[in-house]
Automatic annotation (TrEMBL):
Gene Ontology biological-process annotations: antigen processing and presentation of peptide antigen via MHC class I; immune response
Entry keywords, A to Z: Disulfide bond, Glycoprotein, Immunity, Membrane, MHC I, Signal, Transmembrane, Transmembrane helix
The name this protein goes by in its record: Major histocompatibility complex class I-related gene protein-like
Domain of life: Eukaryota
Membrane-spanning ranges: none
One GO cellular component term noted in the UniProt record for this chain: external side of plasma membrane
Compartment(s) where it occurs, according to its Swiss-Prot or TrEMBL record: Membrane
Topology within the bilayer: Single-pass type I membrane protein
Organism (species): Python bivittatus
InterPro entries referenced in this protein's UniProt entry, alphabetically: Ig-like_dom, Ig-like_dom_sf, Ig-like_fold, Ig/MHC_CS, Ig_C1-set, MHC_class-I_related
Residues annotated as domain Ig-like: 1-76
Length: 78
């Protein structure tokens, strides 16, 4: 098993929806979430992590929805 972290930084307003998705479906099991916290410039940052089987890495994405985005963003693991 390996742990991956998704960092979301520099967003405003504070409300954000971020999740790990496997093949497009939200994964709650083995997901750990931090708190939304302020940055010095008035924006916010957030993180969430997940433990996965390294052989399934290509199936996972960090999914982010926020009012500051024109559309949701899905980021593949590196």
């Amino acid at each position: 098993m390996e742990t991956h972290v998704c960092h979301v930084d520099g967003f405003y307003p504070k409300e954000i929806d971020a999740s790990w998705r496997r093949d497009g479906e939200e994964q709650l099991q083995d997901t750990f979430r931090g708190s939304v916290a302020p940055n010095a410039d008035g924006t916010y940052h957030y993180w969430l992590s997940i433990r996965i089987d390294p052989q399934e890495r290509d199936r996972y994405r960090c999914h982010v929805e926020h009012d500051g985005l024109q559309e949701p963003v899905d980021v593949a693991m590196k």
